[in-house]
Amino acid sequence: MTEHQTPSDSAHAPRQRPPAVFSDYVAMARPDHWIKHVFVVPGILAAMVLAPPSEGYDLWRIVGGFLSAMAIASANYVINEWLDAEQDAQHPTKSTRPAACKAVQPHFIYLECAVLAAIGLLIAWLIGPLFLIGSVAFLISGLIYNVPPLRVKDRLYLDSLIESVNNPIRMLLGWATISTVTAPPGSLLLAYWMGGAFLMTVKRYAEFREGSAKYGIEVLAEYRQSFARYTEQRLLLMSFLYGQLAAFFLGVFLIKYRIEYLLALPLLAILFTYYLRMALKGSDAAQAPEKLMREVPLLGLVALISVVLVVLSFVDIPALQYFMEPQLVGVH
Questions:
Q1: N-terminal to C-terminal alpha carbon distance within the chain
Q2: DSSP 8-state code for residue 13
Q3: Distance between CA 83 and CA 78 in Å, rounded?
Q4: Degrees (nearest 5) of the Cα angle 59, 191, 280?
Q5: Each residue of 249-288: pLDDT tens digit?
């Protein structure tokens, strides 16, 4: 400390950050988040049931689809972490991310992002036009979410809606690995979008509830500006709205395309309720979806739903057609 410095000056002096190494740039691509691409699988299964190709399935297209989606998602993660470095440095846990605590080089960031995006788009081009369109949308959604002047991650409500639009995009990508001549039904994409919005809003609720209690809203707002205007009530109400809309659009899809799936709706309602319960209990998995693999009861419920949907894909129940026709009960 020099003679002109005070203890307060020293406390607020810029901290010298160690230089980032290769592993830090790899970590910025967040390979641990690739588990989120499980949301591609329903698109694959839906296309197999509703639009199976006459020439059979191409395993390499499916594998390539996952690789492309992972590369583009990682490109978005890199630019996300780079632009969020100052905000993440204010967060109690995310301050350990490489861009927040290391001296990263901008030219390496731009190069990594460009290479990952180019790999993803090249594979997408090889798979087909529909997959390429979905991949471009995937990349653009990340830019809208992260990059000023739009940067909707700082805008009330739009943060969850735009982040969750990646869910229907992932479904489209999964579908496009199977069917090259049709697109998935709009009702299914909307249901997937609203379901994702429910998950993201519940995630915000869990972050807000725990973070405001531990650190205060001011600290949260330094990390994410939209938290300055959120309240627990707003987040719960919006999650309820998104859950309702997801159920509505899913019901439209099920009735139009395969009414047998209606039998799985109670299990899906239980799944949504269980996830909300996790947020209310302060589960880490509700705040970081990549940790969901540790939630054994949740995984068991997902596995049960998957089995039920597979069975209902091949079992016809003609009696369910009774519910497709108006029935008035006579009173004497």
A1: 95
A2: S
A3: 9
A4: 105
A5: 998 998 888 888 888 889 999 999 988 888 888 766 566 6
- Convert the pLDDT of each residue in 15-26 to its tens digit: 577 888 889 899
Which residue, among 229, 211, 209, has the nearest Cα to 220 in the 3D structure? 211
Any residues with CB less than 8 A from the CB of 264 and at least 6 apart, and which?
Answer: 305, 308, 309, 312
Bridge partner list, 103: 19
Judge if the upstream peptide bond of residue 149 is cis by omega within 30 degrees of 0. yes
Q: How many CB atoms lie within 10 A of CB 84?
A: 20
The Cα 93–Cα 203 span in angstroms is: 15
Contact assessment for residue 262 and residue 255, using Cβ atoms and an 8 Å cutoff = yes
- In three-state secondary structure terms, 12 is coil
Judged by phi (left if over 0) then psi (alpha if -120 to 50, else beta), residue 262 lies in alpha
Q: How distant, in Å, are the alpha carbons of 1, 171, 258, 265, 290 from that of 37? A: 51, 9, 25, 23, 10
**What is d(CA 298, CA 277) in angstroms, rounded to the nearest whole number?**
11
Measured CA to CA, the distance from residue 36 to residue 26 in angstroms comes to: 18
